[in-house]
Structure formats: structure tokens, C-alpha cells
Write a structure and sequence with these properties.
heterodimer, A: 174 residues, four-stranded mixed beta sheet, 4 helices, globular, B: 2 domains, 3 helices, 31% helix
């Protein structure tokens, strides 16, 4: 499921925590567009989810979402650890994600009035696995970009992660 | 020599003509086998009947729901811009195990760009509806359903005009779920349209 835009919202919904927003390209998935649309006219629905990571690539984690109510719809959201780690971190910290239907070119700033659905993602124990995956990938990325050994890159990667984590864990006072 | 010859002759005579006790014992053994066989067959039949009875009892303990539709009405509420769909339903529990209705929902199937979608609309209590509301008794979950018992009432669903938009509904299905996870449904094709 292509993610064409992202952002974050903070407010009273998650006790001031930053909750990321994903704009999905639903051009080829009318079922996803519909589940997000009908949500507006019905009481809160049910969803199950799993976090997953790839055995073949060290740059990918995925969120496997299954809407049960108001409609039975499955979607797999894939995230590059190198480029989208902050989204994953914010989802784990905020314990939720806003999902919005859209098309390539859509941005949060230009679609503020669009309908969006908050999917709750309670803690499933994925955080320690995520921390390892993130550090491993960032160490490799820093080593490649700085052309240094991984042993030297590891503390630098930790610093980068701490900085990103600080942004992802921003919290507004209620 | 003579004595030995005589012994041999007696033995030969015994072999050719067995005494009546030996014949009787053979007959008795045969009878005993026949009686044992008949008794075994009878026991097998009894055991089979007992097993069937036990299986029937077990089947009656398994959760089951029967759903029957009596009536279906669509109340048009032009002042609220929605419709209230009502289905008068009888839910029976033919099993020997008490149950309870935990969820009542309406599944509406419709197509968008050739993809069939099914939206699940939860039921509402008549008391939760704003005026004007239909004058019926709603069947609201959770509702107790004793063993070999039945309940009836109106399952109500509020449908805003925007829910399906311009997409026509292909199918309506009322789904009842009980506390044991059993789901039964009934399809509805015809509504009496009533204005409120």
C-alpha cells in the first residue's frame, strides 16, 4: 500500500502525544478508500494489527493492519528504516496512527479538512525488536555515508537515533 | 504278544466309536459358542444405541442458533436525513446450553469500481434514536437466550444517507452472534417503506 504523504498531529486524542499521519494512495484500493470513508458515518470500528520485519532486507519493517469493523479490509504498510524510522518510532510511542485516503501529491497541509481515521496500536512488545533493527540499520547507514567502520559508526548512529527519538516523542501539555 | 494285540484292538474300537459324553461335550461347546455370539451381537447393538443416544445428547449441548425473519421495514426520516431499517426477528436456541446474543449487525454489500464491499452496521436501541422514532420494541444485545428458548424483537439500524452515497446496495444481511461465537444470518430483499 503506497504511502504518498505523512505528517503528525498532536492534541487531546492521545494525551498530547504526537501521532503520525499517513496519506495512502488508494487509487487501486477502493476497499481501503471505502473503509476510511464509511468510518465517518458509523461508531468506532475494530482493527487488529501485527508488526513485522523482513528477513531479506534490514531496511524494512511493516505494519499489517486488518480492519474488522465496519468493513473487513487488510492492508500492509511498509516502512524504510533508513527514511521513515521516525514514523515507526512515533507510532510506537503514540500508540496509534492517523490514516487518510489520498492520491500522489497530497500533503497534510493541503488536506486538513479530509476525513481521517485514528487506528489505535497498543503496545505488543515490538519496541525492543524495533530498537535493535533501528540501531543495526542506522549503524550501517552512518558507516556507509561517513566511510568509517561499523564499530566507529555505532555511537554516531545512537546519537542520530536519540535526536530522532526526541522529535518523535514530543508531547504537548494538555 | 496276545495282550498287546488286544490292547491295540480296544484302542481302535474306541477311536471309531467315541463315547456319548464326548459327543455331548462337542455339542455343548458349539451351543456355548452360539450363545456367546448371540450375546455379543446383542451387546453390540445396545452399545451402538447408547453411543447414538450419547451423541444426540452431545449434539443438543452444542451451541446453535436459528434465525427467522418476520418482517422488514425502512422508516424514512426526511427531517434527520437518514433511514432506520428494522427487522422483526425470532432467534431461537434449540440446544441444551444457555446462550446470549452479544452482537446484532447489518451487513450491506455494494460495489465500488467493481470491488464488492460489505459494511457492517451495528444495531441501535430504539431509545438511542432521536425523534421521530418507530414505535417498536427493539431487540438489544446482550440478550439472554436460555436453552430451548427463543426471543423476538426488532433489530434496528440507523443508516445516514451518506453511508452508501450513490452506491446502490446489492444485499442486506442481518447477522446475529452469540456468546459462544456462533453466527447466523438472514438475508433481506424487500422492505416496507414507511415515512416517519
Amino acid at each position: 500500500m503506497p504511502i504518498v504523504g505523512d505528517g503528525a498531529l498532536a492534541g487531546p486524542v492521545a494525551h498530547g502525544r504526537l501521532v503520525p499521519l499517513l496519506i495512502l494512495d488508494t487509487s487501486n484500493r477502493p476497499d481501503v478508500r471505502e473503509v476510511l470513508r464509511v468510518h465517518e458515518h458509523l461508531p468506532p470500528g475494530d482493527v487488529t494489527f501485527h508488526w513485522a520485519y523482513s528477513r531479506d532486507s534490514d531496511d524494512e519493517v511493516a505494519l499489517d493492519l486488518r480492519f474488522i469493523r465496519p468493513m473487513d479490509v487488510k492492508l500492509l504498510l511498509r516502512f524504510s528504516i533508513e527514511r521513515q524510522a521516525i514514523l515507526v518510532e512515533a507510532m510506537l510511542n503514540g500508540q496509534g496512527v492517523w490514516v487518510q485516503a489520498g492520491a500522489p501529491g497530497d500533503r497534510l497541509a493541503t488536506t486538513m479538512d479530509a476525513h481521517r481515521v485514528l487506528v489505535e496500536l497498543p503496545d505488543t512488545g515490538f519496541q525492543p525488536t524495533w530498537d535493535k533493527l533501528w540501531l543495526k540499520r542506522m549503524t550501517r547507514v552512518v558507516a556507509r555515508r561517513q566511510r568509517i567502520s561499523r564499530r566507529k559508526a555505532r555511537p554516531l548512529a545512537k546519537n542520530v537515533i536519540e535526536d530522532l527519538r526526541g522529535v518523535a516523542r514530543l508531547r504537548l501539555k494538555a | 504278544m496276545i495282550a498287546w494285540k488286544a490292547n491295540v484292538m480296544v484302542e481302535a474300537a474306541t477311536r471309531s466309536n467315541p463315547p456319548w459324553t464326548e459327543r455331548a461335550s462337542v455339542v455343548l461347546s458349539g451351543l456355548a459358542i452360539l450363545i456367546a455370539l448371540a450375546f455379543g451381537l446383542s451387546t453390540r447393538k445396545t452399545a451402538k444405541r447408547a453411543l447414538e443416544l450419547s451423541e444426540r445428547q452431545e449434539a443438543r449441548r452444542e451451541s446453535r442458533l436459528d434465525v427467522r425473519l418476520n418482517d422488514s421495514v425502512a422508516w424514512r426520516r426526511s427531517s434527520n436525513g437518514d433511514r432506520v431499517l428494522g427487522f422483526n426477528i425470532v432467534v431461537s436456541n434449540p440446544s441444551d446450553r444457555a446462550s446470549a446474543i452479544t452482537r446484532v449487525e447489518l451487513r450491506i454489500s455494494y460495489s465500488v469500481d467493481g470491488v464488492v464491499n460489505a459494511v457492517k452496521v451495528p444495531s441501535v436501541s430504539v431509545g438511542d434514536l432521536d425523534a421521530p422514532r418507530p414505535d417498536v420494541d427493539s431487540l438489544d444485545p446482550p440478550a439472554r437466550l436460555d436453552a430451548n428458548d427463543a426471543v423476538s424483537g426488532w433489530c434496528l439500524f440507523r443508516l445516514s444517507d451518506e453511508l452508501l452515497g450513490d452506491y446502490p446496495a446489492d444485499r442486506y444481511e442481518v447477522v446475529i452472534r452469540d456468546v459462544h461465537g456462533i453466527e447466523e444470518s438472514v438475508q433481506v430483499a424487500v422492505f416496507h417503506e414507511v415515512s416517519l
